[in-house]
Design a protein that fits this description.
heterotrimer, A mainly alpha (about 290), B mainly alpha (about 270), C alpha+beta (about 350), B: about 270 residues, mainly alpha, MetI-like fold, C: about 350 residues, alpha+beta, Rossmann fold, OB fold (Dihydrolipoamide Acetyltransferase, E2P), 2 domains, 6-stranded mixed β-sheet, 8 helices, 20 strands, about 25% helix, binds adenosine-5'-triphosphate, binds magnesium ion
Chain lengths: ~290, ~270, ~350
C-alpha cells in the first residue's frame, strides 16, 4: 500500500487504515469507467472493420488508418487544423501578453477588478460569445453596416478563416493571460529597474529581462491554447460555415453522418497522435531556444 | 517601472484588447434589449419584447428548465466527488499523486467533442443507446470534476493541517474534525468549485451535442439549432441570462477564494 | 496526574531516522524540557506522543496505560502548537470551549470553565475576539488556555515561545512555569533554546540527531555535560583536546596543547584515554603574569590577549595560551587588560570538566 506515513491519522489496528481511500474511490471509478474505458473502446473500434449493415464487424484491421494516411484529403484537413491552431496561438499570445503584463504589475485592488474582466468572458458559454460575433461579423452585421455607412465596400468577415480566427482568439485569450500573468508576477519588478539603471531603455529592459523570465508561462499558455484550439468544434462550425473543416468536425461527421465508426475512431486517435507530436516538436524547439537565450 | 509616456502606450493597447474581449458579450446584451429584429445603426430603441418572446417559447423554456436540472445534478455529483478526491490527493496522495492529478484533470485537456463521441459509442457498445438524462449527467459530471478538483485543491494546499491535529488533540473524532474545523475553513473553495461546475455544465456544448436526444435538449443545443436558421434576438435573451450568471459567479468567486488562485502555471 | 514514559521510541521517514531508540520518563507533575538543535527530532517525538505520527518502534505509556496505538482524540494530551493552530473561524471562547464540547460537557459547565480559564490566563474580556484580532502573546495564552481547560493528563508544548519577541518570551517563561506548577501538570516542553530549558525545566533531556544525549537537572547538564556535543550546545564553553595522564586526589590530570591541567571528570575516564576539556568563559580569570604556577585547586596558564570585545556588562577576551589554543574569557565590565598584553589565565580545577572524546 502507498500509505507510507500516516500524518493526521492515529495508529489504528492494521486493516482499518485504508478507510480513507474511500475518498478517492468514487471519482476514480467514474473516471475509469466513463472516461478511460470509452477512450480505450474508441481505440479498439478504430481497428475494427467498417460495415454498411452493422456499426462495425469484429474483425481486426489496420485499414482504417492506412486509408486515412493515404488520403490527401485527410492531410489537407490536418494541415488546416494545425494552421488554425498555430495562427490562433500566435495571435492570442500577441494580444494577451500586454494584458498579462499590465495585470501582474497592477496594484492589488485594481488587479481584482481586472481579473473580473479577464475571467468573465470565460464563463459565458462559447455558443453565446460566438453568437455575439455573428451579430458583429455577418455580411449584414454591425461592422459591415458601419463600413457601408462610411461609403466603403463590405468585407466578408464570417464563414471563412478570418471569422474562425477572430472567434477562437477571443475565446482563448483569457487562458493565455492566466498562464502568463502568474509567471510575470513572480518576476521581481526591481529586476527591470536594475536593467534600466544599467542603461537599458524601457523596451530593452523588458525584452532582455522580464520577457525571458516569463517564458515558462508563455510556453504553458501557448501549449494550452494550441491544444484547446485544435480541439474546438463550435466556433469552426458556426463561424466557419461549411468552408472551414477541422479534424474534430470531420470526426463528428464521419461518425454521426456517415456512420463509419471505425473510420471516425481512427481519425480521432490519429488526431491525438498528431497533436501530441506537434507539442513534442514545439517543446523540443522551445527547450532549445530557452537554453540559448 | 515604466515612465508616463510608456505607460500610456501600454494602457492604450490593453484597453483595446479588453474592448475586444468584451465586445461580443456587450453586443449580445444590446441585441436582447434592442427593439428591432436585428441590431442596426442607429439602434431602434430599447424594448423587452424579446424577453417576452423567450418566455413564451415552449422550446426555449423547456430546454432552460432541462439545463438547470442537468447542471444542478452534475454540480452536486462533481462537487462531492471532486472535493473528496482533492482531499485524498492533497493528504494521502503519496506516489500516485501525479498520476491521479493528471487523470482527474484529463477531461479538460482532451477535446470535449471527442469525449462526447467516445461516450456515445461506449453507451451503444454497452447496449444503453442514447441514455438521455443519465448519459448527459455522466458526461457533464466528467467535465465538471476537474474544475471542482482544481479549485478545492488550491484551497486545501493552503490549509494548515495542524488545525486538524489540534482538533483531534482536543478530543474530536475524525468526522467531528472534518465537520467542525476542515469544512468551515475550505467552504469557500468548495462553493466556488460548485459554482464553476454549475456554469460549466450549464454552458457545456460538445458533450451535449452528441448525447442529447429528443426531449432531452439542454439550452446550448437548442440555441445551436436555432442559430442555424435564424438570427432573431430570442437567442440573445438566452445569452443575456448566461452572461448575468457569469457576472454573479465571477464576483462570488472573487469574494470567496480570490480569482488569483486561478492562475495557471504557478505564480 | 500521570507520568509519561517513552520506551525505545523510534521514528523513520523513509531513510531518515528522525528519532532513534528514545527512552525517557517525565515523572508525574514534572516539567521535562526536550532540548536540541533544529532537526534533531523534537517535534517528531512530541507528535508521536500526541498520536499524529505513528512510531516505527517503541512504546508510549501514560500513567499505567500503553497509548501507543490510541487515536489522538483518546489520549488526553493537551498540546500547544508552535504556530498555535488556533481555529481562525472560531472566537477565543469557542476555541477554548472546543475540547470541552468534544467531551460532551453541558453548556453551563462549558461556559463556566471557559470563563475561569480565560480569567486565569488574563484574557477575560477578549473571549469574543477572533484569533487574528489578538497579539502574539494573547494568541499564545489562548492556545495555553485551550490545552489546559480540558485538564489533560499531560501537557505538550512545541517551541511555544519561538514566535514571540525577546522581552515577551522572557515574561512567558516564568508565566508558563507558574501555570505548570499551579496545575501540577506533567509537561513535556520542546525547545531549541537552552536558556529557556534551563530556566523552566525540572529536568532537561538533550536530543541530538534523534538520539538522547543526556538527561538531568539543569545544573547537571550545564556543569557536567556528558559529551562534547552537549557541552558545546549548552551555553558558551572552551573545548580543549587532551589526554588523561594520571590522577591527583579527586582530580584528573590532563596533558593539553596549552599545558597540564587538573580537572574534575566523568567517572568512566581512565588513565591514557583521549578526553575533551570544557571550561566555561565565565569561570576563567585574568591576572597579571608572574604568579606561581598551579596552586592547589587552581589551574594557571600563561597567555597573550589577542582580542577584546566590549559587550556592555561584560568584556569578551580571546587569549592565546599557546599550543594553538585560543581561550575565550569573559571578564567584568572594567577589566583592564589590553590586546597584546601578557596575562595569567586561571580557573578552578572544579570548574574544568573533562569528558570522553568519543561521542555517544
Ligand atoms: N513528515 C516527514 N517526512 C520526512 N521527514 C521528516 C518528516 N518530519 C520530520 N522529518 C525529518 O525528521 C527530522 C526531525 O524533524 P523534527 O521536525 O522532529 O525536528 P525538530 O527537532 O522539531 O526541528 P526544529 O527545531 O527545526 O523544529 C528532520 O530531519 C526532518 O527533516
Ligand atoms: Mg520542530
Amino acid at each position: 500500500m502507498s500509505v507510507a506515513e500516516a500524518t493526521v491519522a492515529p495508529a489504528r489496528p492494521a486493516g482499518r487504515v485504508s478507510g480513507r481511500h474511500l475518498l478517492i474511490l468514487p471519482a476514480l471509478a467514474v473516471l475509469v469507467v466513463f472516461f478511460v474505458a470509452p477512450y480505450l473502446n474508441l481505440l479498439l473500434i478504430s481497428v475494427m472493420t467498417p460495415s454498411p449493415r452493422a456499426a462495425y464487424l469484429r474483425v481486426l484491421t489496420l485499414d482504417n488508418y492506412a486509408r486515412l494516411v493515404r488520403d490527401p484529403f485527410t492531410w489537407s484537413v490536418v494541415w488546416h487544423t494545425m494552421w488554425l491552431g498555430m495562427a490562433t496561438t500566435a495571435l492570442s499570445l500577441v494580444l494577451a501578453y500586454p494584458l498579462a503584463y499590465h495585470l501582474a504589475r497592477s496594484p492589488r485592488g485594481a488587479r481584482g477588478a481586472l481579473m473580473v474582466l479577464v475571467i468573465s468572458p470565460l464563463l459565458v458559454g462559447v455558443l453565446i460569445r460566438t453568437y455575439g460575433w455573428m451579430i458583429l461579423l455577418q455580411d449584414t452585421g454591425l461592422i459591415n453596416q458601419l463600413l457601408r455607412a462610411l461609403g466603403l465596400r463590405t468585407v466578408p468577415l464570417m464563414y471563412n478563416n478570418l471569422g474562425v480566427l477572430i472567434g477562437l482568439t477571443h475565446v482563448f485569450i483569457p487562458f493565455m493571460v492566466l498562464s502568463i500573468a502568474g509567471t510575470i508576477q513572480g518576476v521581481d519588478p526591481e529586476l527591470e529597474l536594475a536593467a534600466r539603471s544599467l542603461g537599458a531603455g524601457a523596451w530593452r529592459a523588458f525584452w532582455r529581462v522580464t520577457f525571458p523570465l516569463s517564458l515558462p508561462g508563455v510556453i504553458a499558455g501557448t501549449v494550452l491554447v494550441f491544444v484547446l484550439t485544435v480541439s474546438s468544434y463550435v466556433i469552426p462550425s458556426l463561424l466557419g460555415g461549411f468552408t472551414v473543416l477541422t479534424i474534430p468536425i470531420l470526426v463528428v461527421r464521419t461518425i454521426t453522418e456517415l456512420f463509419n465508426w471505425p473510420g471516425g475512431s481512427a481519425l480521432a486517435i490519429l488526431f491525438f497522435a498528431i497533436t501530441l507530436g506537434a507539442l513534442w516538436v514545439y517543446l523540443r524547439l522551445a527547450g532549445r531556444t530557452g537554453r540559448t537565450t | 517601472m515604466l515612465r508616463r509616456g510608456e505607460r500610456v502606450w501600454l494602457n492604450a493597447a490593453v484597453a483595446l484588447v479588453y474592448a475586444f474581449l468584451l465586445a461580443p458579450i456587450v453586443i449580445v446584451v444590446l441585441a436582447a434589449l434592442n427593439a428591432g429584429a436585428y441590431l442596426r445603426f442607429p439602434p431602434e430603441g430599447l424594448s423587452l419584447r424579446w424577453f417576452v418572446a423567450f418566455a413564451q417559447s415552449r422550446s426555449f423554456t423547456r430546454s432552460l428548465a432541462f439545463s438547470l436540472k442537468l447542471a444542478a445534478t452534475a454540480t452536486v455529483l462533481s462537487t462531492v466527488l471532486g472535493t473528496m478526491a482533492s482531499l485524498w490527493l492533497v493528504r494521502f496522495g503519496g506516489r500516485l499523486r501525479t498520476t491521479l492529478r493528471i487523470l482527474l484533470t484529463a477531461p479538460l485537456a482532451v477535446p470535449g467533442i471527442l469525449t462526447g463521441i467516445a461516450l456515445l459509442i461506449f453507451f451503444y457498445a454497452l447496449g444503453w443507446g442514447k441514455t438521455g438524462f443519465g448519459g448527459l449527467v455522466i458526461g457533464h459530471t466528467l467535465i465538471c470534476i476537474p474544475y471542482v478538483f482544481l479549485i478545492t485543491s488550491a484551497v486545501l494546499v493552503r490549509f494548515d493541517q495542524s488545525l486538524e491535529e489540534a482538533a483531534r488533540n482536543l478530543g474530536a473524532s475524525p468526522f467531528a474534525t472534518f465537520r467542525r474545523v476542515t469544512l468551515p475553513l475550505i467552504k469557500g473553495g468548495v462553493i466556488s468549485g460548485a459554482i464553476f461546475a454549475f456554469v460549466t455544465s450549464y454552458d457545456e456544448f460538445n458533450i451535449s451535442l452528441l448525447l442529447s436526444g429528443v426531449g432531452n435538449t439542454p439550452l446550448p443545443i437548442q440555441l445551436f439549432d436555432y442559430l442555424r436558421f435564424s438570427f432573431d434576438p430570442t437567442a440573445a435573451v438566452a445569452g443575456t441570462i448566461s452572461i448575468a450568471m457569469a457576472v454573479v459567479v465571477v464576483l462570488l468567486t472573487q469574494r470567496l477564494v480570490g480569482l488569483e488562485s486561478l492562475y495557471m502555471g504557478g505564480g | 496526574m500521570a507520568s509519561l514514559r517513552l520506551q525505545g521510541l523510534t521514528k523513520r521517514f523513509g531513510d531518515v531516522v528522525a528519532v532513534h531508540e528514545l527512552t525517557l520518563e517525565v515523572p508525574s507533575g514534572e516539567l521535562v524540557a526536550l532540548l536540541g538543535p533544529s532537526g534533531c527530532g523534537k517535534t517528531t517525538t512530541l507528535r508521536m506522543v500526541a498520536g499524529f505520527d505513528v512510531p516505527t518502534r517503541g512504546r508510549i505509556v501514560l500513567g499505567d496505560r500503553d497509548i501507543t496505538a490510541d487515536p489522538p482524540e483518546r489520549r488526553d494530551c493537551g498540546m500547544v502548537f508552535q504556530h498555535y493552530a488556533l481555529f481562525p473561524h472560531l472566537t477565543v471562547e469557542q476555541n477554548v470551549a472546543f475540547g470541552l464540547e468534544m467531551r460532551g460537557l453541558r453548556r453551563p459547565d462549558v461556559e463556566r470553565r471557559v470563563g475561569e480559564i480565560l480569567e486565569r490566563v488574563g484574557l477575560g474580556g477578549l473571549g469574543r475576539r477572533y484569533p487574528r484580532q489578538l497579539s502574539g502573546g494573547q494568541q499564545q495564552r489562548t492556545a495555553l488556555a485551550r490545552a489546559l481547560v480540558i485538564s489533560p493528563r499531560v501537557l505538550l508544548l512545541d517551541e511555544p515561545l519561538a514566535n514571540l519577541d525577546a522581552k515577551l518570551r522572557e515574561e512567558m517563561r516564568f508565566y508558563i512555569r507558574s501555570l505548570q506548577r499551579e496545575f501540577h501538570i506533567t509537561t513535556l516542553y520542546v525547545t531549541h533554546d537552552q536558556a529557556e530549558a534551563l530556566v523552566l525545566a525540572d529536568r532537561v533531556a538533550v536530543l541530538m540527531n534523534g538520539r538522547l544525549q543526556q538527561v538531568g537537572a539543569p545544573e547537571e547538564i550545564y556543569h557536567r555535560p556528558r559529551t562534547p556535543a552537549v557541552a558545546a550546545f549548552i551555553g558558551l564553553t572552551n573545548l580543549l583536546p587532551g589526554r588523561v595522564t594520571g590522577r591527583s586526589g579527586e582530580r584528573l590530570v590532563l596533558e593539553t596543547p596549552a599545558g597540564t591541567v587538573r580537572a574534575a571528570g566523568a567517572p568512566d575516564l581512565r588513565e591514557g584515554m583521549e578526553a575533551m576539556l570544557s571550561v566555561r568563559p565565565e569561570h576563567i580569570e585574568l591576572d597579571r603574569p608572574g604568579e606561581p604556577a598551579s596552586r592547589d585547586g587552581v589551574n594557571r596558564l600563561r597567555g597573550v590577549v589577542q582580542e577584546r570585545t566590549f559587550l556592555g556588562s561584560l568584556i569578551d577576551f580571546r587569549v592565546d595560551v599557546g599550543g594553538g589554543v585560543l581561550l575565550r574569557v569573559q571578564g567584568r565590565g572594567g577589566a583592564p587588560q589590553r590586546v597584546g598584553e601578557q596575562v595569567s589565565v586561571s580557573f578552578d580545577t572544579t570548574a574544568a570538566w573533562a569528558l570522553p572524546r568519543r561521542e555517544g
